[in-house]
Amino acid sequence: KAGVTQTPRYLIKTRGQQVTLSCSPISGHRSVSWYQQTPGQGLQFLFEYFSETQRNKGNFPGRFSGRQFSNSRSEMNVSTLELGDSALYLCASSPDSGRTNNEQFFGPGTRLTVL
Amino acid sequence: GDSVTQMEGPVTLSEEAFLTINCTYTATGYPSLFWYVQYPGEGLQLLLKATKADDKGSNKGFEATYRKETTSFHLEKGSVQVSDSAVYFCALTAGGTSYGKLTFGQGTILTVHP
Hints:
The complex is a heterodimer of chains A (115) and B (114).
Chain A: E1 5-7, E2 10-13, E3 19-24, E4 31-38, E5 42-50, E6 53-57, E7 64-68, E8 74-78, E9 87-94, E10 105-106, E11 110-114
Parallel strand pairs in A: 2-11
Antiparallel strand pairs in A: 1-3, 3-8, 4-5, 4-9, 5-6, 7-8, 9-10, 9-11
Chain B: E1 3-6, E2 11-14, E3 19-21, E4 23-26, E5 32-38, E6 44-50, E7 56-59, E8 62-65, E9 75-77, E10 86-93, E11 103-104, E12 108-113
């Protein structure tokens, strides 16, 4: 089975722009979670989608949004980019049998640099 | 809220040394506990997990036991190799409506020298 894929792998934007990141989960996985990783804050949960619905959300401003499509692929969008949004954005998928203790499988991440 | 605390790093060891990385947690209910590893330039890989008290997770020579009385999940390996050099993250997922959310510790950088 192919793993979680994320595109693009690297991205450079300038302040004020917006960006869209894409994530394709493992085939058959219906839950997709997004995380932001920075040296200062570590790994922080952004949100989780299941069957095209956001079920959980972390403590991030409304500039961060996401969606999930019927094939479970997910995108996240960051509008009005700030320098502090520079980070590695990780996507993870899970089969989600309804339990919250399912293992998550991570993609390689998208490295976003905001200039 | 839920939180995970890992021992301060970085940790530097010689090959074949014994490894311990401490992890303690705070959570409501009965969380599941995980250790993830991140190699340079890559995403996170699950190393091991435990879903209830006294469970022992193990993989590739690494072990960790879910200790509810001490709220701990320390990672151990009897003999480390250079290839174990990476960043290790302890994490938990709580029950209830905490869908899809892993709460991570700050990570511990491990460097193993030949």
